Amino acid sequence: MDVSSIAGASQMMQSSQTQQALSTAMVKQAAEAQNKVADLLAQNAKQAPQPVKSQDYGFSTFA
After folding, report:
1. Alpha-carbon distances of 49 from 33, 41, 42, 60, 63, rounded to whole Å
2. Which domain holds residue 50?
3. I need a surface site. Which of 6, 26, 43, 55 has the fewest CB within 10 A?
4. pTM to 2 decimals?
Protein backbone atom coordinates (compact mmCIF):
# COMPACT_ATOMS: atom_id res chain seq x y z
CA MET A 1 0.00 0.00 0.00
CA ASP A 2 1.51 3.29 -1.02
CA VAL A 3 1.60 6.53 0.95
CA SER A 4 -1.15 8.24 -1.03
CA SER A 5 -3.53 5.32 -0.42
CA ILE A 6 -2.85 5.44 3.31
CA ALA A 7 -3.30 9.21 3.36
CA GLY A 8 -6.57 8.92 1.43
CA ALA A 9 -7.91 6.26 3.78
CA SER A 10 -6.90 8.37 6.76
CA GLN A 11 -8.66 11.41 5.29
CA MET A 12 -11.84 9.39 4.72
CA MET A 13 -11.77 8.13 8.32
CA GLN A 14 -11.30 11.67 9.64
CA SER A 15 -14.15 12.93 7.48
CA SER A 16 -16.39 10.12 8.70
CA GLN A 17 -15.57 10.88 12.33
CA THR A 18 -16.28 14.57 11.80
CA GLN A 19 -19.65 13.77 10.22
CA GLN A 20 -20.49 11.44 13.10
CA ALA A 21 -19.57 14.13 15.65
CA LEU A 22 -21.79 16.66 13.86
CA SER A 23 -24.67 14.19 13.76
CA THR A 24 -24.29 13.52 17.47
CA ALA A 25 -24.28 17.25 18.20
CA MET A 26 -27.45 17.71 16.15
CA VAL A 27 -29.21 14.89 18.02
CA LYS A 28 -28.14 16.40 21.35
CA GLN A 29 -29.39 19.85 20.29
CA ALA A 30 -32.76 18.39 19.24
CA ALA A 31 -33.07 16.55 22.56
CA GLU A 32 -32.34 19.76 24.48
CA ALA A 33 -34.98 21.60 22.46
CA GLN A 34 -37.54 18.87 23.22
CA ASN A 35 -36.68 19.10 26.92
CA LYS A 36 -37.28 22.86 26.84
CA VAL A 37 -40.67 22.34 25.18
CA ALA A 38 -41.56 19.69 27.75
CA ASP A 39 -40.60 22.06 30.58
CA LEU A 40 -42.73 24.84 29.09
CA LEU A 41 -45.70 22.50 28.74
CA ALA A 42 -45.28 21.38 32.36
CA GLN A 43 -45.23 25.01 33.52
CA ASN A 44 -48.35 25.80 31.49
CA ALA A 45 -50.12 22.77 32.93
CA LYS A 46 -49.38 23.98 36.46
CA GLN A 47 -50.74 27.46 35.68
CA ALA A 48 -53.86 26.28 33.86
CA PRO A 49 -57.13 26.58 35.80
CA GLN A 50 -58.21 23.35 37.40
CA PRO A 51 -61.69 21.97 36.72
CA VAL A 52 -64.30 22.67 39.37
CA LYS A 53 -67.12 20.19 39.91
CA SER A 54 -70.47 21.82 39.38
CA GLN A 55 -73.30 20.90 41.76
CA ASP A 56 -75.96 21.49 39.10
CA TYR A 57 -74.56 19.31 36.36
CA GLY A 58 -72.68 16.03 36.11
CA PHE A 59 -69.63 17.48 34.41
CA SER A 60 -66.79 19.79 35.36
CA THR A 61 -66.42 23.39 34.27
CA PHE A 62 -63.47 25.71 34.37
CA ALA A 63 -63.81 28.64 36.76
Report:
1. 26, 14, 13, 12, 7
2. 3-62
3. 55
4. 0.59
- Say if CB 13 and CB 5 are below 8 A apart: no
CB 32 within 8 A of CB 42: no
* Each residue's pLDDT tens digit, 16-62: 999 999 999 999 999 999 999 999 999 998 888 777 766 666 666 66
Task: With H, G, I as helix, E, B as strand and everything else as coil, classify residue 54.
Answer: coil
* Measured torsion, CA atoms of residues 55, 57, 58, 61, in degrees rounded to the nearest 10: -80
Q: How far apart are CA 25 and CA 13, in angstroms?
A: 18
Cα–chain center distance at 36: 8
